[in-house]
């Protein structure tokens, strides 16, 4: 008997990873104050609740960033703009000073490192951390935010960075409802 694309397979870690490559995600960089400050690239950012406002992101417990994030009272979540793939790569690379040039940033509220040029950012108060398997789900309440009125997000899909397709008139295409 041959296998077809419609046949289900066991949902092990490798199969799940392959399946999730089909999900396009907004690329975010999460930063936290520290000596030195820390940050990492995440595609797991999502809204959890509007009342009260709560967002979440996930971080591997083995990450070099986790010890600082495990104690941080505040974090900044930056939604990267299309064209910021090099910044995403910097914050996805281990063993380097992610805040050294060419990264442009400034101290923000509660000492949060705020990255220049992001499409949007949220300054958040951490409200909970839930350890699930080899990751922690961090729940945070946005206290301040800033967003651009123009621009499009940097997306991650099938293992590479992408952007929204533009219509011939230069506007982003909208999905049919």
TrEMBL record:
It holds the Pfam family Flavin_Reduct. The keyword Oxidoreductase applies. InterPro entries: Flavin_Rdtase-like_dom, NADH-dep_flavin_reductase, Split_barrel_FMN-bd. Residues 20-163 form the Flavin reductase like domain. Keywords: Oxidoreductase. This is Flavin reductase. It comes from Micromonospora chalcea.
């Amino acid at each position: 008997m041959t296998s077809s694309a419609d046949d289900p397979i066991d949902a092990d870690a490798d199969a799940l990873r392959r399946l999730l490559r089909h999900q396009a995600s907004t690329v975010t960089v999460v930063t936290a104050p520290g000596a030195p400050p820390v940050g990492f690239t995440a595609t797991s950012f999502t809204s959890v609740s509007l009342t009260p406002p709560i967002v979440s992101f996930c971080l591997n417990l083995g990450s070099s960033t986790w010890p600082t994030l495990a104690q941080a009272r505040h974090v900044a979540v930056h939604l990267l703009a299309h064209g910021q793939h090099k910044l995403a790569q910097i914050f996805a690379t281990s063993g380097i000073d992610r805040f050294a040039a060419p990264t442009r940033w400034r101290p923000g509220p509660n000492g949060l490192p705020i990255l220049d040029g992001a499409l949007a950012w949220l300054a958040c108060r951490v409200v909970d951390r839930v350890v699930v398997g080899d990751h922690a789900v961090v729940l945070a309440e946005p206290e301040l935010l800033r967003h651009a009125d123009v621009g499009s997000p940097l997306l991650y899909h099938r293992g590479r960075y992408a952007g929204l397709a533009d219509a011939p008139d230069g506007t982003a295409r909208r999905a049919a409802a």
